[in-house]
Task: inverse folding
């Protein structure tokens, strides 16, 4: 009923750090990525090749990527919003990229300065060129459950964007609960609809932010549906402390604690991962919000 193994797609260095107000030195980011890999994570999203004015914290992508690209046996996906971003990523040798779409018009506008369909039109040649270059392509879909401007998001609206990304050639999709409002029944319903629309479960990952404390319950619902790729952020990094609707991702440590408790393999050394998050929290000057990190580091 539950999978024997789960692949964790670690997003701490990208989703976690992209909202950080204080500048994190490139060397610290590189050390973070290396420590995450050292803890046994084999998919470590490294950075984004987006417009530096839109996400100043990741403006050092060109400097950072070469500092980590020698890591053996570790996939280092990067976000690319358009052709310019893809060119920058491929020039550095990146072979795993992610485009990021939205299920809602409000967030497409806020995040990409485009309508949903305009952004899909931008992604189409990007996905094709990435595939031609031999890259693996992930397609994120944000606001799959709720949107801060539009409220609850109907599953068929999400399915339309998912099938468009699949038709373009995306190898996998990641279903984003960007503001952390999903609950397990909603997760189950969306996954079932996507299967009905021809998107197979092995091509689906889940990406839960933990705003309402539902991320683990939602993950379990997804695992019961057959999902084996789960996004998480070391230490629960991420989110802006001033934006109620955007807290951090599901903490990788909380996820690993649950998965190992269920007898599901991850390849992650929880002790080393926790030590990494404690180290990163020191760099950022505030404690990790992860319950598991707190429990394991206050002995
Ligand atoms: P725009 O202003 O519409 O850009 O922004 P444009 O296409 O009109 O181009 C304007 C200028 O920007 C041009 O320069 C371009 O060359 C340059 P000029 O010719 O005027 O000198 N430009 C770039 N420069 C460097 N790298 C690039 C790039 N693209 C254009 N890639 C754009 C459109 C998409 C660029 C902008 O909106 C953007 O960068 N957005 C990124 C936002 C972002 O990174 N958000 C966070 C990631 S998504 C997320 O966190 C959700 C997720 O976690 C899942 C979930 O939780 O739901 C994935
Ligand atoms: Mg996210």
Result:
């Amino acid at each position: 009923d539950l999978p024997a193994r789960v692949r964790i797609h670690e997003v701490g260095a990208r989703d976690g750090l992209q909202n950080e107000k204080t500048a994190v030195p490139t060397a610290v980011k590189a050390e973070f990525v290396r420590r995450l890999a050292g803890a046994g994570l084999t998919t470590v999203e490294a950075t984004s090749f987006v417009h530096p004015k839109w996400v100043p914290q990741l403006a050092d992508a060109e400097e950072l990527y070469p500092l980590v690209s020698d890591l053996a046996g570790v996939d280092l996906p990067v976000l690319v919003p358009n052709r310019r971003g893809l060119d920058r990523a491929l020039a550095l040798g990146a072979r795993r990229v992610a485009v990021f779409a939205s299920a809602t018009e409000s967030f497409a506008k806020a995040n990409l300065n485009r309508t949903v369909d305009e952004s899909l039109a931008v992604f189409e040649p990007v996905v094709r060129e990435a595939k031609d270059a031999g890259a693996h392509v992930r397609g994120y879909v944000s606001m799959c459950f709720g949107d801060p401007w539009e409220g609850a998001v109907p599953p068929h609206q999400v399915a339309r964007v998912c099938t468009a990304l699949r038709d373009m050639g995306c190898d996998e999709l990641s279903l984003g609960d960007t503001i952390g409002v999903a609950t397990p029944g909603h997760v189950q319903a969306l996954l079932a609809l996507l299967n009905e629309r021809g998107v197979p479960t092995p091509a689906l990952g889940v990406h839960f932010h933990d705003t309402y404390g539902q991320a683990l319950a939602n993950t379990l619902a997804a695992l019961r549906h057959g999902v084996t790729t789960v996004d998480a952020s070391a230490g629960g990094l991420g989110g802006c402390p001033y934006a109620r609707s955007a807290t951090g991702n599901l903490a990788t440590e909380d996820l690993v604690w649950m998965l190992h408790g269920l007898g599901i393999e991850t390849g992650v050394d929880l002790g080393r991962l926790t030590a990494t998050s404690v180290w990163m929290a020191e760099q950022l000057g505030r404690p990790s919000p992860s319950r598991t990190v707190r429990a394991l580091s206050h002995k």
Remarks:
- Residues 15, 176, 178, 207, 209, 249 surround magnesium ion (ligand 2) (CB under 6 Å).
- The two ends are 35 Å apart (CA to CA).
- The longest helix spans residues 116-132.
- The chain has a mean pLDDT of 96.
